[in-house]
Structures are given as C-alpha cells and as structure tokens.
User: Fold these one by one.
Assistant:
Number 1:
Amino acid sequence: MTDKPTLTTTGGAPVPDNQNSLTAGPRGPVLMQDYQLIEKLAHQNRERIAERVVHAKGWGAHGTLTIENDISKYTKAKVLQPGTKTEMIARFSTVAGEAGAADAERDVRGFSLKFYTEEGNWDLVGNNTPVFFVRDAYKFPDFIHTQKRHPKTNLRSPTAMWDFWSLSPESLHQVTILFSDRGLPVGVRNMNGYGSHTYSLINDNNERFWVKFHFKTQQGHQHWTNAEAEQVIGKTRESTQEDLFYAIEKGDFPKWNMQIQVMPETDADLTPYNPFDLTKVWPHGDYPLIDVGTLELNRNPENYFAEIEQAAFSPSNKVPGIGFSPDKMLQARVFSYADAHRHRIGTHYESLPVNEPKCPVHHYHKDGAMHFKSNGCPVDAYYEPNSFNGPVEKPDVAEPPLKITGDAARYDHREGNDDYSQPRALFNLFDDGQKSRLFSNIAAAMQGVPEEIVERQLKHFELVDPAYAAGVRTALNAS
Ligand code: NDP
Ligand code: HEM
C-alpha cells in the first residue's frame, strides 16, 4: 500500500509502467502503440521555448510595493496612493548573453517589475542604469547586433562594439557607466533600478507631470572588478541566481527605496537638454528625488520556468494615472515587447498565471492558439457595440490631450545635441581609484580593436575630459 498519488498520462489515465517500454519480446523492437513513450519523448522535444532576443539570462522573485508617502498631487494611480501595498514580480537580467551565460559578466542589468494593481498590470521595464546607449529606436537592432555574436566567427566582437559606439557619440554616457564599477554588480540585490525613460503622471484634476522612476538599493552598492569576476566565474556561472535565491530563502529580503523625480509639463520646453532623451538624466539639483515607498522581494518562484521564463513584461502595460511620454525609444518599446511575447510565448501569453492581471479582465479578442480562458464577456457579447451587456469603455480614464507641434520629418538626433556634459558630470564623481578602473576596464575591452576605431573613440573621451582620454591611452599602452 502507498499513499503516493498515481502517475497518469496528461489525459489523466493511470500509467501501468514508467520503467519499461512496450516491446515485442524482451529485446525489442518497440511497439508504436507505446503512446506513453512517444508522449514523453515528444514533450521533451518541446521543453524549450525561444529565448528572449535580448536579456535572455535572468533571475527573479515575487514581492510587494508599499507606498509610504503621499504623491497624490501628481498621480491618481491607485497603486501609488499612500498606504497601498501591491503584489509584484521582478525579473533581472543581463542583456547580451544567452540563457546559459555566466552571471558575473560586465553588462547592463535589466530591472523589470510587474505590479498586479487593482486597475490592471503596470510594468516598469527598466535597467540598472538611468540612461541608454541610443536615443532613437531605429538604431536599437544595430546596437544589439554589435552585442551579439559575429556571423562568421560566432564570437562576440569588440571591433563591432567600439566601431558602433565610436560612430554613435550618444552612447558615451552609458558606455562610461558600463565600464565603471557599476557595470559589474555582484548581484541584483546590490544595484539600483531605474525606469530610465521619462514617463508621465496624471492627477485627479487631469494635470500631467513628467516623471522618472528610481529604485535605490538598501543593500548598498557592491561590484566586482574584472579580475574578481574571472575568479567568480571559475567557481560558479550562477552567482546572481545563488545570491538572490538563497537571500530570499533565508528571509533576508532585498529592498529598494522607490523615488521619483517630477517635472511640471510645461518645463519640458525650458530645460537645456531634451527631457525625453534617453541618453540624458535629469540632474538631481534641478529635479530632486521624492521618496515614494519601498519595494521588497520576499518570495522565490515555485517553478522558475512558469513564473520567470514565461513572465512577459511590456512598457505598454500602464494604468490610469501613469502614461507614456514623447521619448522615441519608449514609443518603440510600447510596440516591441507585446510583439516579442506573441512570438516567444504565444497569442494568449497574458492569460498565463504569472502574467494574468489580478483584477477583472473583459475584452473582445477571440480564439487563437491556446485559448484557455474566458475573455470575461457574456456569451452573446462577442462584438462591440452590442445589446447583451458586454463591457464598455470608461471615458474618465482618458489622458488629457498632449500638445504636439512640428513637421513630420526624419530629424537628425545628433545635431546640436550635447553628448559630453553629462558623461563629464559622471566622470567628475569618480575618485582616482574609480577612474583608474574605468580606464583599465575600457582598455581591456578594446583589445584587438583596429587602431582607427580606438582613436575615434579616444576623441570622444577627450571631449568629455582630456584626463579621460589620457587615462585610457595610458591603460592601452600598458596592456
Ligand atoms: P548627483 O551628485 O546628485 O547624483 C549622482 C548620481 O550618480 C547618484 O544618483 C549616484 O547614485 C550616481 N552614481 C554614483 N556613482 C555612479 C556610477 N559609477 N555609475 C552610475 N551612477 C553613479 O548628480 P546629478 O544628478 O547632477 O548627476 C550627475 C551624474 O550622475 C549624471 O550625469 C549621471 O551620469 C549620474 N547619475 C545621475 C542620476 C540622476 O537621475 N540625476 C542617476 C544616476 C546617475 P547613488 O545615489 O545610488 O549612489
Ligand atoms: C527585453 C526590445 C530598449 C530593458 C527586450 C526584448 C525585446 C526588447 C524585444 C525581449 C522581450 C521578451 O522576449 O520577453 C527593445 C527595444 C528597445 C529596447 C526595441 C529600444 C527601442 C530597452 C531599454 C531598456 C530595456 C531602453 C531599459 C531602460 C529591457 C529589459 C528586458 C528587455 C529589462 C527584459 C525583460 C524581462 O525581464 O523579461 N527588449 N528594448 N530595453 N528590455 Fe528592451
């Protein structure tokens, strides 16, 4: 007698034998009617789904966002009202490596958050950096090609990276962060997160404010040098997964202070920089950080694949009181992610438990592969308008009109754009040790890159600060 449950087929019928295939005689061959053997092999062939085209290696956990301060004068979003506690899930990632890449690699980290609010899912799909390498989505696929493998060598190509960066001075700010200490955090608990883009907040009076979201680590910043990371990778390729998983498992829950910077809508025309340019920050001196609340991760997934690999984050998921901005990159991302999810996980990816909103969902989409949930409409209401009490729109959540001016054209985003002042402000924050590691990290990453490309890049460093170029040149000569 046993109290273990009975093994069944996926059809629910009991399986008589899970050790021996059905054969004609003890030596075989196998009979085709051994459906259970065929099903096992067929299922195995389908265990992998396409990996994310970027940010394939990831780590994640469940948690809560608690709002401690009153920012209701800026937003009516229920998730951001004082005292509100919202369940959420986070997924962190490196950008360039494939799903099996080592964790301790120098790379930007993804910082994706999905808040299951009572008004729908709000996704903030950010990074551990406040800026990005490009400012026009037209250049995003080109940039990513330089981070992935060369078509012939099948190796990553420093030449491609520095060729692109040196021809794209808007990348300087992010390149400086990437090769600074913060470009190689020991794990995700020890880094900040940023919404990076400018978004908007809308209050009860339908007034719009521009906003930047920040999540400051309470665990303190910790980084590895290149040499330390080599040692780590020699011992384990899963250093971040181990760090996050076991911290949460033992009840040492990582936390971040959520803060915002707020800009009145009309200020956008007054700042000396374009506040919708993703290669720029808003200086804290101009737009100080405002405390909002605390993000805490406190529960490991029970099933990594179901809850983290199948998690589908998209900047298009927003709720009333939170909106987009004219940022060209954000506009493209609003399209790109849902498209990626339909390809990677399927038409009904939003019905999967990890992605499913925790509020009522009613829509008129119909059918499609893996349609396993009702769309929440009465049976006769499968089109709109209808006379059968089907769901209807809610005009009071419409955003205030946004004034747009200008002629449709392809404007040169590099013309008259200052790509050097903000990297300079960052460079000036570094102490001598940080500067010296910046120089040597860059020199190490430039090994084998043709001289003319290196010289082109050094000219950009020179325009940030002559000491920046000189430091990298000295490090190159020493390597
Ligand atoms: P502040 O002195 O007010 O802020 C400096 C910021 O730099 C802090 O947020 C700090 O983060 C962060 N920082 C410190 N070291 C590093 C590093 N190695 N890599 C990335 N960030 C770092 O100055 P400003 O607001 O005037 O900004 C000056 C420069 O600081 C900017 O040009 C930008 O490069 C960088 N920065 C600015 C941010 C902003 O939103 N204004 C955000 C992040 C960076 P922490 O508080 O966690 O220590
Ligand atoms: C993942 C596109 C810029 C952060 C992805 C994915 C795509 C994509 C297609 C894979 C999604 C999936 O399969 O699940 C783009 C495009 C961009 C852009 C077209 C520019 C136009 C950015 C920026 C940030 C960012 C600026 C951060 C500020 C992320 C993160 C992920 C991701 C964190 C991983 C999401 C997860 O954890 O599942 N991006 N991206 N991306 N991107 Fe972007």
Note: Residues 328-344 form the longest helix (17 residues).
Number 2:
Amino acid sequence: MTNEKNMTTALFIGRFQPFHLGHIDAIKQISESQIIIGIGSSQYSKTDDNPYGFEERKKMIEQSLANEKINYKIIAIPDIHDENNWVEHVKKTVGDFDIVYTGNDLIKRLFKEKNIIVKNIKINIPISGTKIRNDLKLIKKINNLKNSKNAIILVHNYQRPEIYEVADFIGDSLELAKKAVETDAKIILFCGVDFMAETAKILNPNKKVLLPTYEAKCPMAGMVDIEKLKQMQAQYPEAKTVCYVNTTAETKSHCDVCCTSANAVEIVKSLDAKQIIFLPDKNLANYVQSKLPEKKIIPWEGFCYVHSKILINKLKKGKEIHPNAKVVAHPECPMEIIEQADHVTSTSGMITYAQKSNAKEFIIATEMGMIERLQIEVPNKKFYSVGGVCIQMKKNTLENVLSALEEEKHIIEVNENIRIKAKKALDKMLQIK
Ligand code: 13P
Ligand code: SF4
C-alpha cells in the first residue's frame, strides 16, 4: 500500500443517513487527490431508521458536491456482519485505497487492526446524524398525534429549526396571535414563550392551550410591577397605556391597548392621547418615540436581555467585513443599533424585507436563531448574526413538544376577570391592525 499512486487515494466511509453539511465539510478537508466515498451498511431498507436507498443517498451526495472540484466516486459497501473478514470485504468492494476517514469507532478499530492508516476529520459543523434520525422519528410521532388530537402547533420564528418541521404556522407575535384567533382546532400547542401562549388562551378561553416547556418564560414580560404601574397611571391621568405583547395577562388587563413589534408605531399613532405610558420595553418605547415626535412616550424601564446586549462595535465590525450587507434590526435593540439599521422590523418583517430587497447579504440584529429561519426562507441570500441566544425560547425541544401533546400538559390558565380585561387590549390591537 505504499506506491505513489496508492498514496493519493482516500476512502471516506459512513452511513450518510442522513447526508448533511457536516459530511460536505468533512469531504472538503480530505487532501488526497482521489476520494472513494463508501456508503456503509446493507440497510437500504427504507425503514424509519433508513428511509433512503443507496441510489437516493448517492444522488444527494452528488448534488451537494456538484460545485466542488473533487475527484470522487461513490460505492455501496454492503454489510457482511463478520468483523474478521470485513476489511478484506471492503477492499474487494471498493478497490485500492491508502487512508481511511470515518467517524465510526468500530470501523476505525477494524482498519487499524489491519494496519491501515485512519485519519481524523475536524468536526467544524457539529451536526449529529443520530440526532437527525431521532428528530425524524419524533417529528413523525408529533405530526400523527397532532392530527389525531385535532391540535394545531404554532411556532415562533426563534424556535429551534427542527421544531419548524411540526409547525402548522411559523411567525412573529402578531401573526401567531391572529392564527390563534382563526383556528378551530381543539388544542393549541404554542412553541414559544409564556406570554405568547397566554395571549392565545386570552383569545381562546374554550380551547386547551399548551406550552411544551413550563420554564420557557420571557424575562421582560415579568418586569412590570402592577402597583408601580397604577402609580404611574395616577401620575399621568391624561395618558393612555400601551403594553407590548411581551407582558403577562395581568399587565395587559391594566392597559388600554396592546401592540407587537410589527405594529407598535401604528398603534401608538392611532391613539387620540398625546401622552403614552409604554411598557415594558424601554428600547421599543424609544423607537416609537423616534418615529412619533408629536407624542410624549413615558417609557417603563424594562428591556430584553438578548437585544440590549447587541454590541455596536460588533455591528460596526460586521459592516466593515460585509460592506454590501444591509443591516436589519429588531425594534427591541438599543437606539445606537437602530440608528445603524437600513430597516427596523419584527421577526417576520425581516423575512419579507430580505425577500424583496435587491441586496444579497444582510446583518441581522436580533436573536441568533432568526438566521436559521431566514436561511430556510431566503436560501439564495446570506445572513450574518450579531445577536445572542434567547435561552428561554430554546428550552422547547421536540421531546418536550411530544410529551406536552401526549400528556396534554403545561396547560395555560388565566383568571377569568383578568382574561376579559386583557382581551379588550388585545382585541383593540387586532381591530387597529
Ligand atoms: P416578534 O413579535 O418580532 O417576533 O418578537 C417577539 C420577541 O420576543 C422578540 O424578542
Ligand atoms: Fe423575551 Fe427577549 Fe427572549 Fe424575546 S428574545 S422572548 S423579548 S427574552
């Protein structure tokens, strides 16, 4: 195995079930001039575990490598279930090779025992094929269960991308509130945070509303103290109170009208009062003030920990590296970020903007997960994030979605007196926009 020709051939062996970005990255790291891609195992059975046959997997690999200058061939390696003769069997099946690349520990050991060099690949893209296979099973179970239980799954844009796969609708807070009103499903499973599910319950008292994870709570929604709010309202008797949808049902019950990031400016503009108490987000309040100088906005001192940590230096650096990129910011960002933005909008507004814009690249100032959503919806453009992670949003997992639906647990309840008052603030918002 040491002549010069042989030294240039690598065997990359894996199940490729499913084939993903991590595999492409791995193949690009192989420096040998010829590559044999060996698709392992005889399990071309099209079962839940192995939904694709050899030809389908081969096609996926070929499509993914279509633009790469790589000299490769793809060969099936049927499993003979005989460890002692397995390496010889591979050699007979694929022909000459010198070095093996694989992520499978058993395969590594078998080649090493036969004195064949096994090289490691750096895992730059940490995607696990096992996790994807498990996710596919969970997705199937959730989708079957949701149909049999007459449930609808509403999903916020910041959710993990695997949760998009079980969604009946994915959107921003306003779109999701509207969907919650329209649905005739018996159960609403809300993949988002507490205030979103509570909003669905306020609008649908007769439906069962579930949250996959009890701990998925937006910290900003908990920043309002009702007694202090009443004092503020007494101090400004002429003022109308506008609450961001990121509030508890109780807070909403003390407000005139609700708003979301998609309609805050229009809602405040539509009110006849000059003075507006705006809560809880001071950044959104400042943004609305900048758009409506004729109003006097009295802000609450709340904030979103994800958006307020977006750093101006990081954004400026991003603009230096990607000078042609448009900057799109969520209005929960601090003013210094908003001032640098080409467009300020809600999470779903970002998708629409990216679709319609002539620009090919975008710097996105909001929660990091929005990049995954944008990349799926606008695949031919590039997105760079300057935001951090909302850990509360990410607490929802496919496992939690399944168990919440199976056991119909984490039921959202709202006191009826509070609900009726909170609904008025939401209804008023939905009538205006
Ligand atoms: P959107 O309504 O724009 O989706 O925003 C919700 C949110 O929580 C942003 O942090
Ligand atoms: Fe709340 Fe901020 Fe998370 Fe949105 S990103 S849910 S505002 S903590």
Note: The chain has 18 helices and 17 strands.
